[in-house]
Design brief:
Strand content: 5-15%
Distance between the termini: 51 Å
Protein name: DUF262 domain-containing protein
Helix content: 55-70%
Shape: elongated
Order of helices and strands: HEEHHEHHEHHEHHHEEHHHHHHHHHH
Strand order of the largest sheet: 1-2-5-3-4
Radius of gyration: 24 Å
Number of helices: 20
Number of domains: 2
Largest sheet: 5 strands, mixed
Length: 421
């Protein structure tokens, strides 16, 4: 970490600790509210002082160090020169483009929607959890603002700078999917920033929403140094990938080819424009968690890759394949979307069969579960896979297996029927 990065981190921590409850004293001017009917978000434009803006975003910026799990400050020589120029211009009075803040909150959305003309942003922000705030456009500008504040060593100059006016645009949505839609559209065509990193920007509110909507799930953060000790425990970044898979309807979301990623981006934009996509994803996760709890009670196999029930849904190829097959069934293949009525019918059909399948498994004994799952067959099949792309081969294998399970409406006598497909 460079001395400048360390100083910036210290300053961010200062804002976070010293002004943790400063939202009560925020001073700003709200100029207008507009409804985006496409993504069902409210756009609220306001003018903040620099100090109050940095107070507001300190937690979002501070989570995890640096740019807090969000897009890192670009470190190429040319980028540093451009940002230094931005800092210098800002100190000398330049007005930067608005920073865009996303807030996914059903409560706040409801308050705005009830009476936009009478809405008070000051009152609304008081009820917002800091975990619900994400910077979806403007991380480089925010870095420049912090750096400008750092360079103002004279107390009078710093005080004057802290009162500089900053334009902030808030996007208030009921669901995180609307913010994803806005973010991907905002950043299309800008400097390279891969799809996964863009979605990571809103991972925190997405994580909060998932944990609220899916009983029994526990999402483990990348810095928590924990492992799956109990059913329902999943790495948060793996669930992030599952959302990308669900929205793009392909299990190979980490495509290296730029064209492939652009198509995935387009599919996610189209899917995220559906108001219910997060709810649909959470409904699927509820079944995945229920399945996980069931399998933890399974009798152990003697050996192999899948020895215990908990091993099955600890496998990302298994989860990725299940999510991609089921999302394609409900939403349609990439590039060929089902209409809303068809999606509802497919969703009801899928979950009706899946729930019956899980109910039958819950009535099985530990030995009966072991016999039904036939992990010995899976272990034998995947042990024969050779080559440099075993992960892709495993995903192809499990994708075929879950398609068979779906085609048979979950009524197979045992999973060996699927494994041998």
């Amino acid at each position: 970490m460079s001395s400048n990065q360390a100083a910036r981190k210290k300053l961010i921590t200062y804002f976070f600790v010293s002004h943790k409850n400063a939202i009560q004293g925020l001073r700003f001017k709200m100029s207008e509210i507009l409804l985006d009917r496409k993504s069902n978000c409210y756009s609220i434009v306001a003018i903040f002082s620099l100090k109050d803006y940095l107070n507001l975003v300190a937690h979002s910026y501070n989570e995890g160090g640096g740019l807090e799990g969000q897009r890192k400050a670009i470190t190429t020589k040319s980028a540093r020169r451009i940002r230094n120029r931005m800092v210098e211009d800002f100190v000398n009075g330049a007005v930067l483009p608005p920073v865009v803040i996303g807030i996914a909150s059903k409560d706040l959305y409801g308050v705005v929607n009830e009476s936009p003309e009478e809405f008070s942003l000051e009152d609304g922000l008081r009820g917002v959890n800091e975990e619900e705030i994400a910077i979806i456009d403007g991380m480089q500008r925010t870095t420049a603002m912090y750096d400008a504040y750092l360079k103002a060593t004279d107390e009078k100059v710093r005080e004057k700078l802290s009162e500089r006016k900053i334009r902030v645009e808030f996007w208030v949505a009921r669901e995180t999917s609307s913010l994803i839609y806005r973010m991907l559209v905002l950043n299309t065509g800008q400097v390279p920033w891969n799809l996964r990193r863009q979605i990571e920007v809103i991972m925190r509110p997405l994580k909060t929403e998932i944990e609220r909507e899916v009983p029994g799930i526990n999402l483990i953060g990348i810095d928590e140094n924990e492992y799956r000790k109990n059913p329902g425990n999943f790495q948060a970044d793996r669930v992030l990938e599952l959302y990308l898979i669900f929205a793009s309807r392909t299990e190979k979301i980490d495509a290296k080819e730029q064209v492939a990623e652009e198509y995935a981006r387009l599919d996610i934009i189209e899917t995220s424009s559906r108001e219910s996509v997060i709810s649909m994803f959470c409904e699927l996760l509820k079944r995945v968690v229920r399945f996980d709890y069931i399998l933890w009670g399974m009798e152990k196999e003697s050996g192999g890759r899948f020895r215990e029930g908990k091993d099955f849904l600890n496998s990302q190829p298994v989860l990725a394949s299940l999510v991609s097959v089921f999302s394609q069934f409900m939403l349609g293949r990439p590039g060929w979307d089902n209409d809303s009525e068809k999606v509802r019918k497919k969703e009801a059909e899928l979950y009706g069969s899946f729930d019956g399948f899980l109910g039958a498994l819950e009535n099985q004994s530990p030995e009966g579960l072991r016999e039904f799952m036939e992990f010995d067959t899976v272990n034998e099949m995947i042990s024969k896979m050779r080559g440099g792309k075993v992960g892709d081969m495993e995903r192809d294998f499990f994708r075929g297996a879950f398609r068979v399970l779906l085609e048979e409406r979950f009524t197979v006598p045992n999973m060996g029927v699927c494994w041998r497909s």
